[in-house]
Amino acid sequence: MKKCETDKKFDEYWKEDSPKISSVEKEIAWGKFYHNNLEKPHNKTSNFIKYAIVITILVILGTGFYTINKSQQEIASLITIENPGNKLKFFFLPDSSEIRLQPTSKITYSKDYKNNREVTLQGNAFFKVEKDQNHPFKVINNKTITTVLGTSFTIAENETQTRVKLHEGKVKMTIRGRSETWILLPGEEFFLDSGNVKVQHFKNYIDFEKESIKTIINFLEKEYAFKISVPEAFLNKQITLRIKKEENIEIPLKIIAELYNLNYSIDRFNRKATLKQHSAIPTNIPIEK
């Protein structure tokens, strides 16, 4: 009933000459009037508001739960590898692609890596990627996306700069939020500095001119995360050698071994290599006549 009708009805009851009735009858009459004219509209509106508030709270809570649950599921589907130490960390991805992770750096990739060869990098790392034409390999960092099929390259970044050095193969570079693309060839470096891009050549090798074997071994251990054993008598011997950056560690070890008539062995699983002298031929073995 509308408010004006209620007021009119109330006035009619007020002005009406009524016979004298008991207080009990008055209470009953007033109760009927209140129930028929005032109580129902008020309760209907009140209940509607209450139900609306409850539904709104449930929707908000449900949305929040869905968001939190989705976020937890996304986190649970990722694998993170960090290097909190001060030495190079070496590991393989599920497709046997090699990563050398620099100190204070971090790599994240999906548990479904076989179908999604995409990793997120924070910091600096070297990549030697296995070829898979059906599943391009992508590295995403703070500013750039590096896309490859199979190659080796190095990425280094800080707050304002990103450097990508290509050692072999080809890579495609893009900047997040921009449409341009750049194709790098071996020996080229993509340099992003505060939004400005420069593609330039870099020195893809290091020359050792009459350096001690000890110096070269220290370099190889640091670059390849290997522990290399060499006979002490050879550590101070000098050698002139060019080492191509990020090439197979077997190449420089083989050169040193051939120059000084040494044997070498490589244990890739335990990241160890050994250079040692040839076993001496025993002289007390009788010679058959």
Automatic annotation (TrEMBL):
Gene Ontology molecular function, alphabetical: sigma factor antagonist activity
InterPro entries the record matches: FecR, FecR_C, Ferrdict_sens_TM
Transmembrane region(s): 48-68
Keywords for this protein: Membrane, Transmembrane, Transmembrane helix
Residues of the Protein FecR C-terminal domain: 206-267
Domain FecR protein: 93-172
Pfam family membership, one: FecR
Top-level taxon: Bacteria
Name the UniProt record assigns to this protein: FecR family protein
Provenance organism: Zunongwangia pacifica
